Amino acid sequence: MAIQLPRVRHRVRTGLATLLALLVLAALGSASATAATSTPRPTAAVAATTPGVVGTLSTSSSSVLEGQPVTFSYSLPASAVVSNNWIGIYSNPGCGPVDQVEDCASTAYNWVTNGSGTSSFSTSGLAPGSYIAYFLYANGYTWLAQPVPFTVTAPPGTLSVQNAVVTQGQSLSFSYSLPAAKVLSNNWIGLYSNPGNGPVNQVYVGASTTYNWVADASGTSTFSTAHLAPGKYIAYLLYDNGYTWLASPVTFTVQPAAPSGTLTAEESTVQQGQQITFDYGIPAGQVNSENWVGLYSNPGCGPVDQVSVCGSTTYNWVTDASGSTTFSTGSLAPGNYIAYFLYDNGYTWLAKPVTFTVTAVPPVAPPTFKAAFGTGLGDPQGIAVDAKNDVWVTDSGRNRYQEYSGTGRLLHSFSRSGVGRLNGPTAITLDRAGNVYVADTGDNRVVEYTAKGAFVRQYTTGGGTALSRPQGVAVDTAGDLFVGDTGNSRVLEFGPTGAYLKSLTSGLGRPEGLSLDASGDVYVADSGLDDAGPDQVIELSPSGTVLDRVGGSTSSSLGGLSNPGDVALDASGHLFVTDPDFSMAMEFNTDGPYLNEFGAVGSGELANAMAIAVAPDGQIYVADSGNGRVVEFTPASAG
Question: d(Cα 8, Cα 88) in Å, to the nearest integer?
Fold first, then answer.
């Protein structure tokens, strides 16, 4: 427990109040009236007349050892008892209320609310010397008893620190001396945070930060500060493996060492929603599994002095000697920020902090409702658009898929029996030849059909592992099929003839809808798992490296996603994502910034929006599962 000085009291009286007090006391004929020079603060509990020296105050010991408590016994007649009577301690000779007026602040004080009892004070904040205690009335300075002098004596030994300020990692040495009668093999010096949990009152209240035994009558004791966080500390020389002081405690400060690592930002300014990446490096001796990079507002409450002053805005663990760490800025309001690279889940700097700025995204008008179609759909779950702008929809509730013209006219309905029969189909896509691929989620497979609906093949395993409730399909320009294997937290790639090629797993929790860009990057609507991060769209390279994350805000109004269902890209590089939980769709730049949302209100209001596709002509189609329909939107640029 830290050594703390009790709260001090300050002057509150005026000359006029003093004059009034003298007049009142003179009129009452009190024996102590001539000494009273201050009027108590008004209170409902104040007696009808101001008492004089009507009580008693005493102490069981007129001399106490520094660090031990001093206790006073007191008594009062009932007429003088109020809730804000108090005992104050002052230096003697000093500036106490010798003339029953305030002359300076007390060194320490306690309220005394009863007619009799005891009141104890810690002497840890009192330097060895003479003191005097006053028993005073109603938050004022009228004596209730004769004051009591007492003495605080120094412990028998001495303790001093050679350097009161040391840099973290430097040695810290204390010199000590003791009388021969106090020398024991298990005397010790303990270091504690200050204010902290040291033996302020010579009793145990918490473990020391570190300690050394001191078995001699005099000498030095040296400590390493490598594992002491920067801050203030206090050292105690203690007796016989206990907590009795052998010397007055000594305070010292550990200042942070110059950081030996590096931290740099790859960008100094990013738009809200974009990722920001920091490169870092530290010596091997500082590598720790709980090193971390934290982002804070700037100016703000980061560990400027290498101690915690508030929580970080967001953070990442950094476990290696060098590398990079990436953050989404979706949850960061536009403004200035500072990044700290910190040691072992604490606040010691590993590198000089780095500043950066998050800017607002220029507004982009959302797509507008154009039409709705699909009367008769039971539960549309997947949607795709071919090169002719025809719209293909899976109807999970009726185990079929259908083809519509871009204007919503039903062209074909495909419902097969036998090996081609579907069971709760979700995602759908087409290749350049017009072949159709359907995620047959209920049967844990993907089924390929010809353009006319004939069964071609099924995909049931990847890398020796059976598919589990697949909910995403996409085909690249080479004819390779990508499958969102939802239950297995992976994306699988198959060749044009059905051969398994590879599995992409980095950063995935619950992959659902998929989309591909012209370079072959895979965009995955990932509804997340507790151990895989938040709900986002994750961009993977063809080899499976995580390139970007979109939709990481904590607020839906800033692009925060909740169990995203599907993702699609337009020719300009904008990203469209369905969010069934919020019953709407959102638009992003492909590098992260949130642009707008649509389908939340009006004629195009969505309910459980599951899938989304962008036609070659730029029109946007959404599988509106909750309303059993397809809804068409026109992008703002085409409006």
Answer: 9
